[in-house]
Amino acid sequence: INAEYGDEYGIEPAAAAAPVMVAGGGAEGGDGAGEEKSSFDVILKAPGGAKLAVVKLVKELTGLGLKEAKEMVDGAPSAVKEGVAKDEAEALKKQLEEAGAEVELK
Hints:
This protein is an alpha+beta fold. The protein has 5 helices and 3 strands; from the N terminus they run ααβααβαβ.
């Protein structure tokens, strides 16, 4: 079967191994890029005990309506804000944690 596909499509076994090596190299480069990350996602992992306070804060921070903010909190884990600067992400995380939520930055 390998010979048939190799002849028909011009594929060689060594060529199939090359993308694996490239992907491995890309992952190593990804580690270095993680140190230079400039945008973050603020992820609400769980609303905690003060769910109402978290819903109100999510509404205020995102500009969503009350229903949409409640759905976001109920659907946790969910992204509250995506692609924000590190300082803004940390400030949002601090506010949400003070309201009782579990938050993660990605």
